[in-house]
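C-alpha cells incoming
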C-alpha cells in the first residue's frame, strides 16, 4: 500500500520523507512551524497541495506560542512559487486573528480542527478533479505526465494522477509514461513508485524522450499538475513542463493541467508575475549522490517554468474543466461557482 504523505498525531505532524523514496519509507517528525518550514525547504514534503496542508498543521502548532506571525512569515518564505502555501497560511492566519480574544487552549483546538479540515478537503477536491478529468480520456488510452502530482504531492489521491485513478475506477485501461523529471527525479522516484504500487501500467522515460515518443506512439493526452496558475491561465509547474507542452502542441496532443481552485492566483495577471524559485546548483552537479559536474562549472537551476496559456487545452478543477480563452473563465469560476465540462 502507498504510505500516507501526512499524519497528524498527538499535536505533531509526521511527514513522509520523500527524499528517501522509493527505497526507504520513513517519517520526519515536526513539532513546530519552523520544523515544517525546514521540511518544505529541503523537500521532505513537496507538491503544492501537500505543502499547503503541512503549513496549516505548522500554524496549528504555532497557535500555542506567542510567535504566530513570525511562524507564518517563515512558512511563507519556504517555497515562493507554490501558491497553495500562501493560500493555506492566509486561511489559518485569518482564523487565528478572528479568535484572538479566546483562551490559548481554545484557539489551539480551533486551529487544529481547521488544519484537519484542510487536509480532508484536499482529498475530496482531488476526487472531484479526478472525476472531471477521467471523462477526457478514452476507454483505452496512453498518457504522459511530468513530475509528481499524485497522492504523494497532495493530502491524498492526487490531481494529475487522481485523473488516472478515477479513470481506472471507471474501468478504463490507461498506459502511463512518466517523465523522470530532472534534476530531482520526482517522476522516476515518486510517480513511478506511486503508480506501480497502485497496479498501473507505468513506464519511465527521460524528459528529453517525450517528443520522440509522441512522434512514434499514439499519445491521447498529457496531464500534469500545477504550482500556481495566473489570471490569464499561464501555469507554473515543475521545470520541464513548458517543453512538454510545446512538444504536445506540435504533435497535436491535448495538454491538460489538473489543479484545485486554491492553485489559481488572480493577483498574478500573467506568468511573468509568478515568482520562480531557483535552487542550488548542487542538484544538477550530482545525481543520486554521484558527482557528474565539477563545482567550477556554472549551473542555472530554476525549479519551475511557466507554460503559456496558449499551449493549454484545458484546466481540470474541482468545479469542472475550463477552456480557452482562460481569463474570463477563470474569473467566472472563482467568483460564480460551477462551470460546464465541455469537451
Amino acid at each position: 500500500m502507498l504510505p500516507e504523505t501526512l499524519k497528524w498525531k498527538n499535536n505533531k505532524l509526521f511527514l513522509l520523507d520523500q527524499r528517501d523514496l522509493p527505497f526507504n519509507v520513513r517519517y520526519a517528525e515536526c513539532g513546530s512551524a519552523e520544523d515544517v518550514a525546514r521540511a518544505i525547504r529541503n523537500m521532505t514534503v513537496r507538491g503544492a497541495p501537500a505543502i499547503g496542508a503541512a503549513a496549516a498543521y505548522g500554524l496549528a502548532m504555532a497557535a500555542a506560542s506567542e510567535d504566530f506571525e513570525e511562524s507564518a512569515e517563515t512558512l511563507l518564505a519556504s517555497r515562493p512559487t507554490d501558491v497553495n502555501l500562501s493560500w493555506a497560511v492566509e486561511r489559518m492566519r485569518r482564523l487565528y486573528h478572528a479568535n484572538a480574544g479566546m483562551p490559548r487552549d481554545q484557539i489551539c483546538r480551533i486551529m487544529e480542527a481547521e488544519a484537519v479540515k484542510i487536509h480532508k478537503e484536499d482529498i475530496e477536491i482531488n476526487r472531484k478533479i479526478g472525476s472531471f478529468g477521467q471523462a477526457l480520456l478514452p476507454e483505452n488510452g496512453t498518457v504522459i505526465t511530468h513530475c509528481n502530482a499524485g497522492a504523494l504531492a497532495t493530502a491524498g489521491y492526487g490531481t494529475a494522477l487522481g485523473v488516472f485513478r478515477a479513470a481506472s475506477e471507471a474501468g478504463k485501461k490507461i498506459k502511463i509514461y512518466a517523465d523522470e523529471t530532472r534534476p530531482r527525479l520526482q517522476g522516476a522516484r515518486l510517480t513511478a513508485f506511486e503508480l506501480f504500487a497502485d497496479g498501473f501500467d507505468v513506464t519511465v522515460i527521460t524528459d528529453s524522450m517525450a517528443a520522440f515518443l509522441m512522434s512514434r506512439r499514439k499519445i491521447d493526452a498529457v496531464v500534469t499538475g500545477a504550482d500556481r496558475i495566473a489570471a490569464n491561465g499561464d501555469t507554473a509547474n515543475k521545470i520541464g513542463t513548458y517543453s512538454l507542452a510545446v512538444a504536445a502542441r506540435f504533435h497535436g496532443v491535448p495538454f491538460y493541467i489538473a489543479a484545485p481552485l486554491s492553485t489559481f492566483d488572480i493577483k498574478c495577471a500573467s506568468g511573468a508575475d509568478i515568482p520562480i524559485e531557483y535552487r542550488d546548483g548542487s542538484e544538477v552537479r550530482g545525481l543520486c549522490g554521484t558527482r557528474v559536474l565539477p563545482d567550477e562549472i556554472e549551473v542555472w537551476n530554476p525549479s519551475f517554468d511557466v507554460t503559456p496559456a496558449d499551449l493549454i487545452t484545458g484546466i481540470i478543477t474541482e468545479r469542472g474543466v475550463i477552456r480557452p480563452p482562460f481569463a474570463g473563465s477563470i474569473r467566472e469560476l472563482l467568483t460564480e461557482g460551477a462551470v460546464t465540462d465541455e469537451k
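note: The mean pLDDT is 94.
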